[in-house]
């Protein structure tokens, strides 16, 4: 407290943004000095750590596998969905196996839902039965919570036309029976 002209105590002025920045810089410099990383007069770091050099043991500067680097980058930047999308689409054959991958392929992945199109209605029915196991396998391989639901679609033909020229009962090539 500072005493005013009339002898009454008055509050010291609140530090401004510049004063706060100077205080923070001084505190950071003091912490750096305590760790031995203080900058010299020229602004260069002093090389005073003889133990900080490359050696036989692994450290943070060593090269790492690509997937580990991408995983670290994904977590640092919060890129959950784009990499999950690429993982589901690119690794589909390895995760589900060659037999399922030969007949069913992922079309799109959004909001943790995977849409898969099968080349026959028989494979679509089979994949609907296998969907819970596939969701568990995909989440195990790509990270928990990556896939919440698999939507299975049958074979795609030309779009069905509705209107006055449509003959009743002719569903078209929507099924592969026969």
UniProtKB/TrEMBL annotation:
Short name of any one Pfam family annotated for the protein: DciA
Biased composition (Basic and acidic residues): 1-13
Coiled-coil positions: none
Compositionally biased intervals (Low complexity): 20-38
Signal sequence bounds: none
Annotated region (Disordered), positions in chain: 1-59, 153-178
PANTHER family listed in its UniProt record: UPF0232 PROTEIN SCO3875
Protein name: DUF721 domain-containing protein
Source organism per UniProt: Streptomyces antimicrobicus
Lineage, broadest ranks: Bacteria, Bacillati, Actinomycetota, Actinomycetes, Kitasatosporales
């Amino acid at each position: 407290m500072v005493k005013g002209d009339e002898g009454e105590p008055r509050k010291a002025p609140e530090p401004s943004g510049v004063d706060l920045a100077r205080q923070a810089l001084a505190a950071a410099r003091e912490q750096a000095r305590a760790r031995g990383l203080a900058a010299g007069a020229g602004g260069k770091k002093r090389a005073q750590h003889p133990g900080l050099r490359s050696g036989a043991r692994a450290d943070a500067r060593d090269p790492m596998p690509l997937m580990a680097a991408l995983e670290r980058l994904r977590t640092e930047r919060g890129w959950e969905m784009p990499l999950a999308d690429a993982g589901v689409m690119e690794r589909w054959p390895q995760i589900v196996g060659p037999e399922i991958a030969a007949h069913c392929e992922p079309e799109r992945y959004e909001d943790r839902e995977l849409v898969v199109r099968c080349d026959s209605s028989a494979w679509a029915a089979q994949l609907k039965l296998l969907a819970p196991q596939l969701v568990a396998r995909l989440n195990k391989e790509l990270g928990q919570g990556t896939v919440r639901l698999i939507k299975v679609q049958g074979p795609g033909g030309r779009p069905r036309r509705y209107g006055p020229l449509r003959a009743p009962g002719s569903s078209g090539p929507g099924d592969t029976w026969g």
